[in-house]
Amino acid sequence: MNITEYIKKIPKAELHLHIEGSFEPELMFEIAQRNQVKIPYQSVEEVKKAYQFSCLQDFLDIYYAGASVLLYEKDFYDLTMAYFAHCAEENVVHTEIMFDPQTHTKRGVSFETVIKGIQKAREDAKEKYGISSLLIMSYLRHLSEEDAFETLEQSLPYKHLIKAVGLDSSEKGNPPSKFEKVFEASIKEGYVPVAHAGEEGPAEYIWEALDLLKIARIDHGNNCLTDKVLVKRLVDEKIALTVCPLSNLELKVVDDLKDHPLKKMLNLGLKATINSDDPAYFGGYMNANFLQTAEALDLTKEDIKTLVKNSFEYSLLSDDEKQKYL
Ligand code: ADE
Ligand code: ZN
After folding, report:
1. ipTM for this prediction
2. Residue nearest ligand 1's atom 8 by CA
3. What pLDDT does 224 receive?
4. Boundaries of each Adenosine deaminase domain copy (predicted)?
5. Which of 50, 104, 125, 185 fits a disulfide with 109 by CB distance 3.0 to 4.6 angstroms?
């Protein structure tokens, strides 16, 4: 079997996916129309043309604007089911889905509406495709810690449906230390902490995420490579990185996929995984990320095996559940 077939066929886990980032323009238009919400584009082609980003903030502005058409439980259900259909097609058998409640509650959509739509899709995807999933509730770091506390409070009636808390949005200028208290409170409620760190921000933010937020896994983490002591710690403590190659390319974290540090991360003994981040915006789901990265970096089947094994091993499934896949 050649490496392309191998990548397509091997059962995979996705550990870094923003459900709002899986919002394809076709569905965005459909939902905008049915909800009678105006969007500043005339056609799907026009939307796609707008997807040219020079940094994370460029992308976030468009991403939040796109999410503004989501109003009802059915919208969140349709969005999530569309993502699961891609998973089924690409042999993604387990996925850890991030959602940003504040992107919606700030617009007057209730927490309940968001989570009920997503939850119904999770149940249906389990039934229809056999895909397992869990939820990571992500706090928006450009907002205040007080705001995150409000979100934590709103989540409590649905605690049984949520596995973890995350930290995303504009990284520079919003260090993990800003959210130390709300992460402490989230851990007390039983949520597993993870956070975006070192995507655009410095290695220092990764140290903070480890020491102050007590995170179990790092989203992105690219900039750990600027700090040898940090790399050693991540290797020694087996803190996995959820790396997103096509996202890194589109947001200019790397200039060329050939310069992507994924292979270097593996060679250093870092527990890297491949993920899609925001596939509707960055030109590809899991298989596209694997295929294009394998091609650019000359990854071997052994490398692919390691990446896929890491994705299950460093998932937030229980040890018993992991055994099914390892
Ligand atoms: N929200 C959605 N995608 C993100 C990313 N790549 N970094 C930070 N926040 C995000
Ligand atoms: Zn992300």
Report:
1. 0.98
2. 169
3. 98
4. 11-326
5. 104
Q: What is the CATH number of the domain that holds 96?
A: 3.20.20.140
Alpha carbon of 292 to those of 66, 283, 298: distances in Å?
26, 11, 10
Q: Which residue in the list 20, 24, 73, 199 is annotated as catalytic?
A: 199
SS3 55: coil
β partners of residue 138? 166
Question: Scanning the structure block, which residue is given the tokens 């569905």?
Answer: 27
Structural domain for 191, as ranges: 3-323
Each residue's pLDDT tens digit, 264-323: 999 999 999 999 999 999 999 999 999 999 999 999 999 999 999 999 999 999 999 999
Tell me the best of 53, 60, 242 to mutate to test the pocket of ligand 1, counting ligand atoms within 8 Å of each CB and taking the most: 60
Q: How far is the CA of 293 from the centre of ligand 2 (A)?
A: 18
What confidence score (pLDDT) does residue 159 get?
98
Q: Which atom of ligand 1 lies at the shortest distance from residue 168's CA?
A: 9
Give yes or no for a contact between 183 and 212, defined as CB atoms under 8 angstroms apart: yes
Best of 179, 196, 246 to mutate for ligand 1, by most ligand atoms within 8 A of CB?
Answer: 196
Under-50 pLDDT residues of the chain: none
Reference 264, options 288, 241, 239; nearest CA is 241
Cα distances (angstroms) measured from residue 78 to each of 276, 286, 318: 19, 20, 28
Q: How is 89-111 classified by DSSP, letter by letter? A: HTTEEEEEEEE-HHHHHTTT--H
